Amino acid sequence: MSAEGGSQRPAYRRVVLKLSGEALAGDQGYGIDPAVLERVAAEVGDVVRLGVQVAVVIGGGNIFRGVAASAGGMDRATADYMGMLATVINALALQEALEKAGMQTRVLSAIEMRAVAEPYIRRRAIRHLEKGRVVIFAAGTGNPFFTTDTAGALRAIEIGADAIMKATKVDGIYSADPKRDTSAERLARTTYGEVLARRLGVMDATAISLCMENALPIIVFDLTRSGNIRRIVMGEPVGSIVSA
Known about the structure:
9 helices, 11 strands, 19% strand, Carbamate kinase, two-stranded antiparallel sheet, alpha/beta, 244 residues
């Protein structure tokens, strides 16, 4: 399907965009690259203007990685809470970029911090989406030992999203790491079972299982290619789809 022609309707009504913290760092590898923020905000705005409801779940790996800190000897729960706070910093940065691009937004945090974000309440999140606001989910699930991938899957299921879109730096799912294995093949479509069995590294096992139990499609795509978010919501075959 082509996105050309103004009469065409989006293929999705409500989506969750899963952004890693690393994606926000761009080529600098750490912190937040303003150019990346600006581009993501413009692409999300493009999709919102089509009438699609967009929620974003954001990671914190560009600032702090709980898993790495716990491997270095820090208590895992403490390290994970620090990682959750890093996601709040990213959420506020993205909120600012989205509002500069003319959108209304709300940050909903799983850890209560009323001075900067609303507490996460499922019905409130859905209401914001129905009013055309971009909702940014911060602080993961609010629990240690869960990744932001799992938070993304959980929130997508809770709000009744049609799909979760996982932004990466590659153009889909491969049978092996394409950087290390030149014979790796791109899988345009695959199943949850295959992703788990072959350990394809799309998301962690908890997130995949959640999506599988609730028949939530996962779309893995290249965020670095401009316009991909719009192409996906218009139903174009971009990236790889994981489904039943």
